[in-house]
Amino acid sequence: MKMKTYRIRKPKVVVIGGGTGLPVILKSLRNESVEITAIVTVADDGGSSGEIRESIAMAPPGDLRNVLVAMSDMPKLYSDIFQYRFNKEDKFLANHALGNLIIAAIAEMRGSTYDAVQLLTKMMHVDGHVYPSSEKPLVLHAVFKDGTEAVGESKIACDRKTIDHVFVRNQEGGHEPKAARKVVTAIMEADMLVLGPGSLFTSILPNLMISEIGEAIRKTEAETVYICNIMTQKGETEHFTDANHVEVLHQHLQDNFINTVLVNTEKVPEGYMDFEVYDEYLVQVKHDFKGLRAQNCRVVSTDFLKLRDGGVFHDGDKVVEELLTILYGAKSVH
Prior knowledge:
seven-stranded parallel β-sheet; Rossmann fold; single chain; alpha/beta
């Protein structure tokens, strides 16, 4: 196997997604000698982020906040303050994360969420780049197999219908969205592109459905790696195998663009999951290695499982170890 050498510069790794999965990978990747760019979804319309984007015409701050903290070397006390969420009894401030309000304030001062995030990367000593996928808030649309449609990321899973496809539009005017500054360049210059882990239809695909981003992903020569979810999700990926996740990504971009899939093979212990807290998860994703290989994917299957607080997560260190092995090895599938 031909090993790649990066003597002159650090390899460039671009991670795309949103939700709780993205920060897990970024936190572990931050300790490695790579240049990181995080491209973060701006289609979130629930919770604190949703309320803020309704009050101020700005991209939702929640996923951006979590990514900034994951990539920052701030002392724990500072990040705890940034992540502090007001009590639900606090009426006006109920459930708002302080970091969301700070991002909103700087976005208003600077006239843009994008500029606010760039300023915060400096303030928070972020080693790498953080870009919203678009500079305007987006609305996610899901078209179901029965022809009906749901509008808004938080509404999509409610009826538990089978999703045919999703697309995004600008919140204002309903126009086709544009990619944020530097996003397309980062994808084209990347040595490795990492998708996920995260909700397939509501965290990963909203980024890919911005046509400039989708096109860049199809064209880039970067090794493209998909980190498959460990659990199926209610109203999104019910009864999905790992191959089904990849099929959906390929169908949306009409191209078999994923080179390598990381699959967890470790079993979640019976009765471990706290389904009251993690109510969107159903069962473990089943494996279909034949189906993955039929889509020209190399499969890396091993124990990526981390059990914490009654929930099921990817072990960031184990995932990053595999990513680096792929990064410094040969690109075996193209």
